[in-house]
Amino acid sequence: MAQDLELDAWDLQSELNGVDHRTEPGGAGRLVVRRGRPFSLTLQSGGFLPDGGLACTAETGPQPSEQYGTRASFGLSAAVDASRWSAAITGAPGAPLTLSVCAAPDAPIGRYTLTLGRSGRVQFILLFNPWCTGDAVYMEDQRSLAEYVLAQDGLIYRGSYKHPVTTPWNFGQFESGILDVCLRILDMNPKHLRNPGKDCSGRRNPVYVSRVLSAMVNCNDDDRGVLLGKWTAGYEGGVSPLSWGGSAEILRRWDAAACQPVRYGQCWVFAAVACSVSRALGIPCRVVTNYLSAHDNNGDLVIERHVNEKGELIQSREMIWNYHCWVESWMTRPDLKPDFDGWQVSDPTPQEKSEGCYCCGPVPVRAVKEGDLTFKYDAPFVYAEVNADVVTVMKKPDGSTSRVTTSTVVGQKISTKSVGSDAREDITHLYKYPEGSEEEREAFQKADHQNKLLQQRQSGGLRLAIKVTSDMRKGCDFDVFAVVTNNTSSDKKCRLVFGSCSVSYTGHLGDNCGFKDLLNVELPPGGERRVGLRLNYSKYGGLLTEDNLIRLAALLMDYSTREATLAVRNIVLENPEIKVRILGEPKENRKLAAEITLHNPLPETLENCCFSIEGANLTAGGVISERLGCSVGPGEDAKVTVYFTPTRSGLRKLLVDFNSDQLCHVKGYRNVIIGK
Hints:
Blueprint: E1 7-11, H1 14-21, H2 24-27, E2 32-34, E3 39-45, E4 56-60, E5 71-74, E6 86-90, E7 97-102, E8 110-116, E9 120-127, H3 142-150, E10 153-160, E11 163-170, H4 178-188, H5 190-194, H6 196-202, H7 206-216, E12 227-229, H8 247-256, E13 262-265, H9 267-281, E14 285-295, E15 302-307, E16 313-314, E17 319-331, E18 342-346, E19 363-364, H10 365-370, H11 379-387, E20 389-395, E21 401-406, E22 412-417, E23 424-426, H12 428-431, H13 438-446, E24 462-468, E25 478-486, E26 492-503, E27 509-523, E28 528-535, H14 537-540, E29 549-558, E30 564-572, E31 578-583, E32 592-599, E33 610-614, E34 624-627, E35 637-644, E36 650-659, E37 666-674
Helix pairs in contact: 4-8, 8-9
């Protein structure tokens, strides 16, 4: 009988299986495998393998059940069948007994116990397998898999749509201990605590898992989630979101603090952590940035903004964020009609509730583009983020209101890192048809939204635009311009209000950085007037948030027609460049030095200066910091040498962060090829 076999010992062949299953960087001597692909065990038994084989049972979760698919019983077959749980004896006669086992391609992911006969118990971790055609996360392109599953570092885009700024990030999904933290996140989710058997069964489905992660990366439901968000100044009890350079430190802090939320995160941090966890579990994932991203809180797909007669924005719950980051995960959607497989949007940043908790998605990117807003999950909210109409209303002192013509279009330059390079890939075309096109309007109608564009770009009338110079660096004084053009056949007399203020990336306004009010702007037919506004560091320097953003707004009022036109533009001030020079020949397990330099562009002295570095397989999964022992005067260089020891060969990113009292969290990176 099969149960009579006595197993004395077994070899998990962790390294061999890890390389074969592409889990070896995070295996750390354990058996970590992917579903739908065989793995091997070498067995030593005290007896012979009887005819009829070996009884095998694979179980996951605290309440394994065949009904839930969390328990599978199977015996030996002549050959492994990759479409189901199966096992077969492999190897030459006389050689040690080698057992090949394969998990079903739709088995729940997680920690497993494999029972062999009466005495054999093997522990292993099962992950999604995007290399397996039968897995719901299967992705055909090998270069994409190298980027979206295996790459431990990348770039996230911030700044503005006119000036995207790259922020390097260490995803670190294969760093020591991170996979355990990811599995703990799944175990701490409220669905698991309420019904662990049903929750573990749901882990067969990447749609379910990605929705759980969307909820658990934030802690807004008091669900012991990973990150607490904060979008206003003052980070007491935690650190600025800009201080983070990677996900591993955040995940480790959450784990070490008994699942208390890490303080603090903002959208790119939430998205980056969700991306790290998704990749660790085997779901292809990427971080996406949407510039001029709308936050529609009433579901009408219209963002109504109010301004006063100075062109100053009157705050409301409905905002247009300068940018917003979320993640896309690759999977099939058998729960929807055909042709909606592929990239799915999930958003772990807590904004609005979905089915009673703060999560968003997954919703197919194609559903957003086509305006199919009945599809799960949260399609109307994501659609509005990239395609809402904008209505601007001016409130006058007497309480009356009037419409203001504005050219603001949400959903600009939707960006992600390119596969295999540090270039930015524009994926706007995946989310929306060209603005104002027939297809875009048809998608609007399908979304059951009958509003037409409130204005089209017209060649006639008064035109208003904001122009800036190319050299807008933090610490410098510079000019910005409002340009008024009269495209009519008659003389025009207007009032031009041109103002600036600091602004956060979420659209919350700060104090005035410069203002000009011209009551009599006269323009002949075809005439143009260029009005400059000087922005001085002495005024704006102390008002900037960590986002380095200034909002420019020009409001033009035509005395003859009483019509008003508004032009708005957010500008991002450039931080100084961080220069990194590698000293020595980069080799595995050989100590290296990085000479790091930053030039102080401010007309003030930098105090409490500190450089920090991190990188996957470069800094042992942690952050290495080096403080300067002196202040850095205006025009002087801050320079340190930091030592680190690479642990794996290949192309790696060394991420650098500079921080001081006056110049906060300047980011940089250097690609380093580590030899064997």
